[in-house]
Structure formats: C-alpha cells, structure tokens
Amino acid sequence: MEEPGTVYFTGTAGAGKTSLVRAFADWMRSSGYDAAVVNLDPGSETTSLEPAVDIREWVRLDDLQDEYGLGPNGAQVAAADMIALKIFDVKQAIEQEDADYVLIDTPGQIELFAFREASKAIVDALSGDRSLIAFLFDPALARTAAGFVSLLMLSATVEFRFRLPMLNVLAKSDVLTPEQLSELATWAEDPSRLYDAVTRDAPTPDVQLSTELFRAIETMGPLAGLVPTSAKDATGLDALYQGCQRVFGGGEDLEPSHAPRTE
Ligand SMILES: Nc1nc2c(ncn2[C@@H]2O[C@H](COP(=O)(O)OP(=O)(O)OP(=O)(O)O)[C@@H](O)[C@H]2O)c(=O)[nH]1
Ligand SMILES: [Mg+2]
User: Fold this and answer.
1) CA separation for the pair 104, 118 (Å, rounded)
2) 196 CA distance to ligand 2 centroid (A)?
C-alpha cells in the first residue's frame, strides 16, 4: 500500500491554518478522497476541527502552564519536547487511521514550531517520501511588497529547517480585491515585479539590501506561484489539492477512494 500524502499546515499566528485544514478536509471528503485530520497544536481549543488524532490527548498547553507555572511560550517549548517523546504513539495513532491523506495542523507560534529541535524530530518521525509543508501567506502581511518578501524569507527558512517540499498558499483570499490578488500573483511569478514594488513602496529605498535579498530570492529558484485559497468561501481547495498532487505524484491524480458526495 502506498504511504499517505502528509501535508503540514504552517504559517504565522492567525494566518488561517486551522480553518484551512478544516475546509480542505471537508473538500477532500466531499470530493471522494480519504483524509485524516491531525491536530499537533497542544494549545488549540478549537473543537470545530474534529481531529482524528489530537495531540491534546497526550500533551495540553493549559496543563503544562498550571503544573509548571509556565507562560504560554515557555509552555509551547516544553510541549514540543514532550510531544517529541510521545511521537511514536502519535505516529501509530495516525497509521491506524489508514487514510490516503493526513492533514496536520501545527502550532500558531511558528518560531516555536519551526526553530525547535524537538519539532524537527516530530516532523522527521511523521514524514515519509510523500510529505510537504503548506506555508500560509496571511493577506494582512502579504498585501504589501515588504510583507510579501518577509513571508517568502520565512517560508524559505521553514524549508531550510525541515527539508521538505514547500507549497506557498495564500490564505483568506476572500479579503483581497481582484486587483490585489492579481498583483500578488505577479509577485509570486516574477521576482523582478516584486523588486520593483519593494523599491517603489520604500520611502527611502535601501537599494543595497533589496538587491541582495532579491538575489537570494532568485537563487531560491522558481517560487512556483502562490495558491489562493479561502476557507471561508471554500475556494481554491481544488488548486491546493492539485498542488499537493504535483509534489506527491509528479502530477498524477489519485483515484477517489469512494464516490464523491453529491449534495
Ligand atoms: N475572511 C476570512 N477569515 C478567515 C479565513 N480563515 C480563517 N479566518 C479567520 O482568521 C482568524 C484565524 O483563523 P485560524 O484558522 O484560527 O488561524 P490559525 O493560523 O490556525 O491561528 P493560530 O493557530 O491561533 O495561530 C479567525 O478569526 C478566522 O475566522 C478565511 O478564509 N477568510
Ligand atoms: Mg490554529
């Protein structure tokens, strides 16, 4: 049996990770694909996600805070270490789901997730050959050229840490105008357009810094676009699925495991 396609959803705090996991799982199921949702955020209070596997069965942020008198960030750090210790139980629980796709929601504080050794161990343990990271661009940041560049750099940092294929995804695209959406699409396709926008926006353009940054962005290779999605309107989810498939299967589509729902 082929191993499942595993997608980690990551991005800055409040980028829309949990909502997108939920919307994508719903879309997959209604399109006939078999998806299991995993919550890896020990601080998540969201009940609407209804994960098949929930890290909070093993590690809970509020318990850690109470027990050890930790603040929310200290508790996240401790939680990552504790999750790493339990990771083979978690892996087993995920395997028992026997799903074609595993959609993993990750903690909101991206630096606590991406920059901890424990998280690297967690991702290494849960990832096979068919794994990718969906990195969410929050429009609140992505809609300015400087914010867009910051997110590209953060996405590259996450890639550098985890060494997994990345898919850059625009979340909450419903809050952007069509003009803003097409501008973001050109930035994602053509670094020189982004460079022009950054230097245009900057009141006193630091040309040296911008040039160096863009040299780095260009050598990172093709950005391969930015998939616009909205969990609110359930749009872009088919494109997100195609993006995942391109990474997993060289573009081949997986047959739905059951007939799509018709409602
Ligand atoms: N307009 C709009 N709002 C959205 C969308 N997705 C999420 N939101 C809102 O954005 C906020 C954050 O959404 P979450 O899904 O909790 O984001 P998150 O990245 O999981 O947040 P943390 O885990 O707390 O970092 C909530 O107020 C959501 O209602 C969307 O597609 N469109
Ligand atoms: Mg969340």
Assistant:
1) 16
2) 34
Domains along the sequence of the chain with CATH:
5-190+222-249 (3.40.50.300)
Residue with token string 């609407």: 48
Q: Cβ atoms within 10 A of the Cβ of 261, count?
A: 9
Task: Provide the whole-model pTM.
Answer: 0.92
What is the atom index within ligand 1 of the atom nearest the CA of 21?
A: 15
Is the shortest distance between the CB of 111 and ligand 1 below 6 Å? no
DSSP state of 248: H
Q: Which residues of the chain have pLDDT under 70?
A: 1, 202-209, 220-224, 250-263
CA distance 185 to 150: 16
Dihedral over alpha carbons 211, 109, 41, 28 (to 10 degrees)? -40
Q: Do 34 and 97 touch, CB atoms closer than 8 A? A: no
- DSSP letter, residue 98: -
**215 CA distance to ligand 2 centroid (A)?**
33
